[in-house]
Every structure is written in structure tokens, then in C-alpha cells.
Write a structure and sequence with these properties.
By secondary structure, this protein is α/β, with parallel strands linked by helices. It has helices spanning 3-29, 51-59, 72-77, 82-98, 130-139, 143-151, 164-178, 191-211, 221-226, 228-238, 245-252, 270-280, and strands at 39-44, 64-68, 103-104, 107-108, 124-128, 155-161, 215-220. The strands form two sheets. It has a five-stranded parallel beta sheet with strand order 2-5-1-6-7. Strands 3-4 form a two-stranded antiparallel ribbon. The relative contact order is 0.15.
Length: 293
Amino acid sequence: MSMNYFIYRILRKTRFILAYVHSFAMGWVKREQYSHIKNFCMFIGYPRSGHSLIAALLDAHPEVVMGMEWGVIPHLEMGYNKNQIIHSLVNNSRQFRKKENNTWTGYSYRVEGQWQGCYQQIRVIGDKLGGRTSLLIQEDPSVIERMKKSLGYPIKWIHVIRNPFDIITTMTRRRLEKQNAWSENADPEELISSISAYFKRVEAVSWFRGKSQQDIIDVYHEDFIACPEKELKRLIEFLGLDASPDYLASCSSIVYEKPHRSRELIRWTPELIQQVEERKNLYEFLKRYHYDS
């Protein structure tokens, strides 16, 4: 073991201990502020599907706090209690506004004049970690009941759905960018591993929807882009809250005019298109999608 790696491990463990102690103390001190929470909100689904936009808009509501990929399930497994989790999510939301200016993967999700990073009164709190959550639940389904027991709130699940060809292309692009290997002339064979990773999550979501009695809402990315006020209002009502016209108008103003056709960034072969067409048709919630639509 190198000295640098040893130091890294020590620093990482120290940061964890400090975060744990701080959240434990502050969660207890501020517990009265969290006494109005009625529902916990979680995302389930796939990476690159539009979770970030929806989570940021929910966080702009005066009675909602949404963390940005803080990781509720992993922290529960590390021994965090309810108040620690709540305080950590509140802090995560605040830091996302303060340090990141509500910018994620190069996109700004800042809503002026609303409540991102702060709140009037928290009635709904949650976390945006859809793709990884799907796999964690598939690996250990019992985590759902443990989460309910630890949190003590009803859990509202948001399932964001987007054209599979766009998700798979963006997954491929992000992976290749990390390797400094992305170009618009990338080999279509690079899509294969992303196709496999995507449908692994689809399988997990399908099990979740069919085998466990959960309170879940489907949100189609393309429908949300086309009618943001209508879809956001539907989401807020699903969470048991009201949405003011000012809130809906402010949030809708940052939504782009049409969905990004990411699939056009790489050449899809007819064989790969057919493979995805056949596999996605096995799932009712994906049947509406095609490569050309």
C-alpha cells in the first residue's frame, strides 16, 4: 500500500467521521424544524433521463427540499438515523445552491425568485439518485422496508422515463468523455455496454413496479418538456402539496423548448436499433418510444 493511498484512506475516514458527528448533532438540534415532514420522496429509474431538472424544480417549492444525489440508501447502511439524513439533505440542497449555483453536468437548473436551497416549512424531503437506487433495490429488495422503518414516513417514488435511445447515447458519451475518447465518429459498438447497463436498470424498475406495492408516479420526460406547468402541478399534487401559479410559471420558464435528441450524436446501426426496439417492447412503459420518434 502506497503512502499516498494510506493518507487518502485516513482523510476519507476522517471526513466521514466529521460528517457523521456533525449531522448527528445538528439533526438533533434542529429536529423541531423537521417535525412538519409528511412524505419522503425518492427517484427510481435511469441515468441521463431528466431527474436533475425535475429534482431542481421540486427543490424550488417552499415546502420541498431535494438533495442532489446525496445517497439515502448508502447512508442508511452506514448507520445514519432519520434526523441525520434530513439534516444532510437540507445541507446538500443548500450547498448545491450556494456552491454550484444549481448547475449539474453543465446545465443550469436555477429558478430565480423561488426556494432552491431554502424553505418556508419542510413537508416533503427527498433525494435524486434514480439510476443507482434502481440497482441497489434490485440487489437487496429488503432495503425498501428498512428504509421505511428508519425514516418513518410514507415514501413517494418518482419514475422518470425518457426515450431509451437518447439515454443510451448519453450514457455512452459520458463514459467516453471520462476516458477522453468521445467524438461524434465514435464506434457504434461503444453503445453495446450502455444498452446492457440501461436494460439492467429497466429490469429492476419493472420488478419494483410489479412486485412491490409502492406509491409511484410515472413522468415522461418528453411530456414534461411539452407541458411543464401541467406535469409539475401533477407531481406537486402527488407529493400532497399545492403549487402556486407563480411557482409553476417560474419553474416552467427554465425548461428547454424541446427534448434533446441525443441519439443523433452517434451513428446507430440498424442492428443495434433493432436490438433496443425488441428489448424495450417487453416493457409496457417503454412501448411508446422508437428511434425515429
